[in-house]
C-alpha cells in the first residue's frame, strides 16, 4: 500500500475521542519514522471532497455516522479503515461501530496489517440516484452505504410521484420512498418496514437492494413490489412534488423539482472497507439464507 494516509476524526470535545486520536497519532508517528509515511489529519467538520484526491488510505476515527458521512467523498479505489473511537464495550454511551473494523486498542497492529496488504477488503455496494431535470440536466446524489430517502422537502406534505420498476407503473402518495442496501437495513429500514424473519440469498446481497414506500395507505400495500421489494431492478420515480430531495445516509441533500425523473439503483461506486477479525457480513449472518 502507498505512503499517503488521511485521518479524518470526530471532534466534539469529549475526552474519550481525544484519547483515541492520541493513540492513533502515536502509532502513526512511529510508522512515519520507520517508513517515511505522509500522514495528514483533519476534523470531520472541516474536511472537503478535494482532501480525498491523493490518499492511498483513509482512516476514519469515530463511529458509524462519522464513517457514512465521510465515505460519500471516497472513491472506489481508495481503501477505508474505520476506527471506533468510543466502543460500546467501554460503556453504554459508546458506539456499536458496525462498519468500524478497528478500535484504539487494536489499532497499532491493525494499521500495520493494512499497510502490508494483509487486511480483509470488503467491497461494499452503494446506492445512488441519478436525477434528470426537466431541462435535461443530469445530477447524481452522493453514494449511500446504508440508505437513500426520496421525499417531499416539506415533510408535512405528502410525497406524490409516479413509481416504475419492471411491470410496476403506479401513482403513489406516501411519506417518501426509502431504499436500503443489504447491510444498511439495520440502520433505518427495519424500523419502517416489518421484514422480520426474512432471509436473503448470499448470491443476491451484492446486487439487490430494499425498497419501501413509507406510510403508504393500507389499501395500497399490495404484494406486487410497489409497497416494498427486494430487487435488482432500477426504480424510476417521476416527481409530482413542487420540491423534493434525495438524502444519502441521512447527510447531504440533493434537491429536485416537479417533473424531474430519478433512477435509483446500486450503480454507485463501491467502497473498499478494511476489517481485521472477520468479514463485514459475519455480523449479519442471521439475515443470510443457509441454503
**How far is the N terminus from the C terminus?**
37 Å
Shape: globular
How is the biggest beta sheet arranged?
Answer: 10 strands, mixed
Helix-and-strand structural type: alpha+beta
Question: Number of helical runs?
Answer: 4
How many beta-strand elements? 16
Rg, rounded, reads 20 Å
Report the portion of residues in β strands: 35-45%
Q: Could you name the ranges where pLDDT drops below 50 across 5 or more consecutive residues?
A: none
List the keywords.
14% helix; Rossmann fold; 2 domains; alpha+beta; Tumour Suppressor Smad4; 291 residues
Q: Outline of this structure?
A:
The chain is an alpha+beta fold. It has helices spanning 15-35, 64-71, 107-115, 189-192; strands at 4-9, 38-43, 57-62, 79-84, 120-132, 138-140, 147-152, 159-165, 168-174, 177-180, 209-213, 228-231, 235-239, 243-248, 253-257, 261-275.
Describe the structure.
The chain has 291 residues and is an alpha+beta fold. The protein has two domains: 4-118, Probable inorganic polyphosphate/atp-NAD kinase, domain 1 (Rossmann fold, 3-Layer(aba) Sandwich); 126-268, Tumour Suppressor Smad4 (Sandwich). The chain has four helices and 16 strands. The protein has helices at residues 15-35, 64-71, 107-115, 189-192; strands at 4-9, 38-43, 57-62, 79-84, 120-132, 138-140, 147-152, 159-165, 168-174, 177-180, 209-213, 228-231, 235-239, 243-248, 253-257, 261-275. The strands form two sheets. Strands 1, 2, 3, 4, 5, 6, 8, 9, 13 and 16 form a ten-stranded mixed beta sheet that branches. A six-stranded antiparallel beta sheet has the order 12-11-10-7-14-15, with no helix packed on it. β3, α2 and β4 form a beta-alpha-beta unit. The protein is globular and about 65 Å long.
Amino acid at each position: 500500500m502507498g505512503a499517503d494516509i488521511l485521518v479524518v476524526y470526530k471532534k466534539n470535545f469529549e475526552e474519550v475521542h481525544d484519547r483515541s486520536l492520541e493513540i492513533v497519532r502515536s502509532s502513526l508517528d512511529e510508522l512515519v519514522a520507520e517508513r517515511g509515511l505522509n500522514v495528514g489529519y483533519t476534523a470531520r467538520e472541516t474536511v472537503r471532497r478535494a482532501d480525498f484526491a491523493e490518499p492511498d488510505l483513509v482512516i476514519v476515527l469515530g463511529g458509524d455516522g462519522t464513517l457514512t458521512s465521510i465515505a460519500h467523498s471516497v472513491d472506489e479505489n481508495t481503501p477505508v479503515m474505520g476506527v471506533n473511537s468510543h466502543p460500546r464495550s467501554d460503556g453504554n454511551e459508546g458506539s456499536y461501530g458496525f462498519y468500524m473494523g478497528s478500535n484504539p486498542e487494536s489499532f497499532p497492529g491493525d494499521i500495520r496489517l493494512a499497510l502490508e496488504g494483509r487486511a480483509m477488503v470488503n467491497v461494499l455496494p452503494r446506492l445512488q440516484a441519478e436525477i434528470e431535470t426537466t431541462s435535461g440536466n443530469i445530477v447524481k446524489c452522493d453514494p449511500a452505504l446504508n440508505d437513500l430517502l426520496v421525499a417531499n422537502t416539506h415533510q408535512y406534505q405528502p410525497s406524490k410521484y409516479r413509481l416504475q420498476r419492471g411491470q410496476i407503473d403506479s401513482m403513489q402518495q406516501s411519506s417518501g420512498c426509502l431504499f436500503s442496501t443489504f447491510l444498511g437495513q439495520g440502520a433505518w429500514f427495519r424500523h419502517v418496514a416489518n421484514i422480520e424473519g426474512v432471509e436473503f440469498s448470499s448470491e443476491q446481497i451484492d446486487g439487490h437492494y430494499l425498497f419501501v414506500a413509507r406510510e403508504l395507505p393500507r389499501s395500497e400495500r399490495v404484494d406486487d413490489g410497489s409497497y416494498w421489494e427486494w430487487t435488482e431492478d432500477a426504480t424510476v420515480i417521476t416527481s409530482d412534488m413542487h420540491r423534493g430531495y434525495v438524502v444519502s445516509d441521512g447527510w447531504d441533500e440533493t434537491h429536485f423539482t416537479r417533473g424531474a425523473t430519478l433512477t435509483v439503483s446500486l450503480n454507485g461506486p463501491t467502497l473498499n472497507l478494511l476489517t481485521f477479525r472477520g468479514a463485514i457480513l459475519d455480523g449479519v449472518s442471521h439475515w443470510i439464507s443457509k441454503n
